[in-house]
Amino acid sequence: KVPIPRATKTWGRSQGRRTTRACEPCRQRKAKCDGTKPTCTRCSNLRLHCKYSLIKRIREQRQLGVLRRKVAEYERLLKDIERRSKEDIAGAIQETLSDSPLTDVSDDIERDRSLTISETTRLPQEINQDTETMRSGRLPEVPEVWWMRWLGDEAGQQRSDRSADDSRTETPITLLSWSGKIVHLPLFAHVGPYFLPKKDVADRYFSTYMDYVHPALMILHRETFTAQYHRAWFVRPPRRWLAVLNLVFAIGCCYNRFITNKGSGGDGSLNDLIFLNRACRLSLNENIFLEPTDLQQVQIETLAALYLVISGQTDRASTMASLALRSALTLGINIWPEDRRLQYGSKEARNRLWWSVYLLDHLIISMNGRVSSIGGGFNTTLLPIPYDENHSRPEVAHVGNPTPHMTWLKMTLFQTDEERRTSADGLATCEPSASVIFHCEVDLATITHNILNAVSSSQAPLEHPSCQNFRIINLSLSLDSWHAKLPQFCRFSESPQSDRLRLNGEPAQFFCGKVRLALGYYTSRIILYLPYFAMKTSSMNTAAAINLITNNGDPVPSNNARSPSIRNACSARLLDGIVLTCLRSACSVVDIFPSSPDIKWVTIYTPLWSVRHYLMQATTVLLLGILYMNRSSALDSDRVSDSLIGGGVFDDGISRTRLLGLIHKAFQWLYTLSQLNPANKLAFGSYNTLTRRIVPALAFNT
Q1: For 450, how many CA atoms within 13 A lie in the half-sphere containing its CB?
Q2: Runs of H (alpha helix) within 261-402
Q3: Is residue 134 part of a domain?
Q4: Lowest mean pLDDT among 52-66, 117-131, 334-348, 646-660
Q5: For labelling alongside 89, which of 312, 354, 476, 587 has CA 20 to 30 A away?
Q6: Where is the Zn(2)-C6 fungal-type domain (predicted)?
Q7: Residue range(s) defining the domain that contains residue 90
Q8: What is the CATH number of the domain that holds 29?
Q9: 656: number of CA atoms within 13 Å, CB side?
Q10: Pair 206, 272 in one domain
Q11: How far from 635 is each of 9, 296, 577, 632, 650, CA to CA, in Å?
Q12: Phi/psi of residue 295, nearest 5 degrees
């Protein structure tokens, strides 16, 4: 035998031992892995992406850390959902859950350094994802929300010694904006747009609208629309007219529900939403901008805005009212038509439709503090004729075809003293009717609209204080002239020279109109004087406030003939007179309402769409009065002196007890109104929070 020596083998470094952890590709193929890092031999030969997974203990620790961070993010998300509307909930949750799943943590060691949810925020498509920030743009000194925030700050300064152990949860005053709270309005897919309700149900809703809504906003020509309504059951009406009818049914359904307190009565609790959906399908759909505008389209948009205001959706109503206003301006119904071919009845119907749009837009901007698009040159039409809608009556014959030169149909703002006397004599000879009250309401709205522009204009801070004071004095005189012109059956005060409220013993048929006039008049006084009242009450230097009002903001010259003490005494008397006038106006607003809250009384005798606004403004002034009495050192702690008022018009004092009683009464009414819609409920809760800061004894336990 010849021995053949064996060849010597050179073993690799990794072939002499077993690797402790194979890479992921070798595990999936169940192949032997040499454990070479960063890339094993097999993965290198096959050109695969070689990666090693973490051991179970480290992987679980890291996944647990990610879970802790996600739980913290979810807790913050739930807290944020409480302050958001329903439309934002789905988007916020989707954005939070769109991060990488937990199984992705073990894919790569370097990815374990990934950021948290808050650190990986992407640039959103919409800057204002929060509905509260979307609606934060409001003019100061107009809506009660702004005054509530200011009053909350003042109350916080006054009660800085509040106990720290008070654990009651309160709504932050800085987050108040109930007009921007969005309530989802459902869209029904199976609603027949041309379907009419039962005749008895339709008659009830139709008569409810005509009795309680039409006298305040004459959007429709009553006689013509009533005749068309009776024919609609036999002949299929046009599409837009049917949309108008469904909106009338929706508003009448809301009123009927509040009056009877038996639900919507008839076909279910969502009747008003069914009628709204029918109207939207008929004339408020996506084709609204593709069709020509006519008078019926203006009526549809105005009625839809009114329904949204009644439902508490002020921001949606603002959008719809602006659309109605633009449609009206497109048709030119804000200008008195000179065409002789157009009958006088048609001219007056167009005129009343324009003023109804004007009234609704004016109300909405006073509620939410938005800028009005109606300027002084937009309107060249006359005030509504103070006669009923039957234009064939002999009383209207002498009116003929009115021209812009008719002085007694001009606005009080633009009348001379002689023209105002002529206008007062003309109104005194008119037969009592709802048209006379509507005429007076429109005239008052033009004055209040100018007041809003005066106190909230963006150019007002740039003007000289003397110009501001001169304009405010003129507006105050215009309110006095309007009040003096009221005919006897429209009077809500003791005399033309007195603002003292007196509504007892009035005829029931005109009581509703007088309540509307009284609420509008006293609210106009509040809007006019509230900035000066707040300036007096605030913690700013009182001498600076007096100098701003009486000395026109200029420094007092040293060679003035009057001594500074006499000048300051006169200035303080003028400022105190403004304070008392504002307080008495707020007291009169609350005095209009009965002692016991009643939803039926509010629905029948007040404008349901604005009663919350009037009560909140008055309550804000009353709470401001409590702060004023607590801070003022010149006034007695129990009673305001009557000598501060010149002229002897107001002959009674305002006691602290009376103010507290009126605040309690207003809060009872706000609590009752909170049952109507979510916006009223939020308003009551916000005012209850504010009361706890100023008068804790009057706060409701909610």
Answers
A1: 21
A2: 271-283, 295-310, 314-331, 344-368
A3: no
A4: 117-131
A5: 312
A6: 22-52
A7: 57-112
A8: 4.10.240.10
A9: 13
A10: yes
A11: 113, 57, 13, 6, 17
A12: -65, -35
